[in-house]
Design a protein that fits this description.
mainly alpha
């Protein structure tokens, strides 16, 4: 298990994930209760 690789993957994936969250919120798939 390479912790460094996981950190790198997280750093690459984070902006992408933020875009997904934003688009999901716009589509009302996520409800903030």
């Amino acid at each position: 298990e390479s912790l460094e690789m996981k950190k790198i993957d997280a750093a690459k994936f984070s902006p992408f994930w933020n875009e997904i969250i934003k688009s999901l919120r716009e589509e009302d798939y996520i409800s903030n209760r």
